[in-house]
Amino acid sequence: MSPIPEFNLGRFKAVAIGSSTGGPGLVEEIINNLPPDLPMPIFVAQHMPPTFTETFAARLELNSPLTVVHAQDTMPVFDGTVYIGRGHHHLRVRKIGRTSTQIEVNDLPTKLVYKPSADELFRSCAEVYGEKTLAIVLTGIGADGTQGARAVHDAGGVVLTQTAKSCVVYGMPKSCVDAGLSDAQLTPADIRNVIMRLAPSHHKETAG
Questions:
Q1: Which of 70, 119, 144, 182 is catalytic?
Q2: Distance in angstroms (rounded) separating the CA atoms of residues 117 and 87
Q3: Rounded to a whole number, what is the largest CA-CA distance in the chain?
């Protein structure tokens, strides 16, 4: 396990989470405990069928202080909003003009095994947000997220992976670690704390 990294306010403009087997409960634990003034969007690629991702988004919306939506194509991107990728579709972000960012949802490329794919999400965030991207790889089978993590790493962003002992399946995080792409290996609680510290309210409480 790594020390919990400290980041300055404004270090990131987006958080992207990739997760598979054993992940829904962890994503829920993280999202439901974040402050409402988080100054960035969160994008979640959780491997689930479409009906389950819709239910998952609705449950998170009920319990989280953040706005949580089941991502739809052409949705505008807002800070303090969590976008849950639709099952059997990829979730990406794209730049519209100079200042606007929009959600992209489709099933291309169709050959990919996992939809939504963490690789596709991370790559798009690296293209739009560059070094301001925080990518998080949680428990799951396989290597989805590794190629996308490389894109984030190459763009100057940060990649966090879940620790082996806290994973249901240490596949996706291990692949990133083995590729030398993990900046820190953390428990889900520590990952949540990293994101919490990106909110202005956390620093006000600490200063007080």
A1: 144
A2: 10
A3: 52
pLDDT, position 205: 58
Catalytic residue among 19, 20, 166, 182: 20
Coil vs helix vs strand at 53: helix
**All domains of the chain, ordered by start, with CATH?**
14-207 (3.40.50.180)
Structure tokens at 14: 């987006």
* Cα–Cα dist 41/80, whole Å: 5
Q: How, if at all, do strands 100-106 and 90-96 pair?
A: antiparallel
Tally of CB atoms within 10 A around 208: 5
How many angstroms from the chain centroid is the CA of residue 91? Answer: 11
Known catalytic residue: 154?
Answer: no
Q: Is 178 part of the annotated catalytic residue set? A: no
Active site residue 20: yes
Please return the burial class of 127, using the count of CB atoms within 10 Å of its CB with bins 0-12, 13-18 and 19+. middle
> What is the model's pTM?
0.96
CA Rg value for the chain: 15
pLDDT tens digits, one per residue of 139-157: 999 999 999 999 999 999 9
